[in-house]
Write a structure and sequence with these properties.
30% strand, single chain, 2 domains, two-stranded antiparallel ribbon, Alpha-Beta Plaits, 11 strands, alpha+beta
Length: 180
Amino acid sequence: MAGVIAFNKPYGVLCQFTDERQGPPRPTLADFIDAPGYYPAGRLDFDSEGLLILTDDGRMQARIADPRHKLPKTYLVQVDGDPGEDDLEMLRRGVRLKDGLSLPASAERIDDPRLWPRDPPIRVRKSIPDSWLRLTIREGRNRQVRRMTAAIGHPTLRLVRWSVGEWTLDGLAPGAWRAV
């Protein structure tokens, strides 16, 4: 039976076990997880937070990461400005990106989810409000959620992946992991 680990990736951590870039070392999964034989199923950008699934089963890893399987991924997204219903409808229909039209997403406004503080904190501008969205996509293009919110005129300030398929972040502190 395949082993699965749910990890709450903090902001500024690479989704790999080594940093191959020259220069000052950056935090990697090895700084948080000691589980030989486990590898990430998919990625989260360096500047994104939240649920990362790791597994010791190559077939499961491919099924989770491969966009052809259309596994739903839900994000809590703090955006610049105050998106209206027309903006959300654009996300629901799919938005034009440089690499083509995105698949339709589930998109709704939500109250501030009262997450853990981010280090460093997001930039705050007194003259421009920010809002939170819950966005579920079924593909995984590079920086897709950020590009989708920018396409509707509301750039992403903070991006937290809450769930991947049946797995969620619920009850998992930043930097913590659990076998599931």
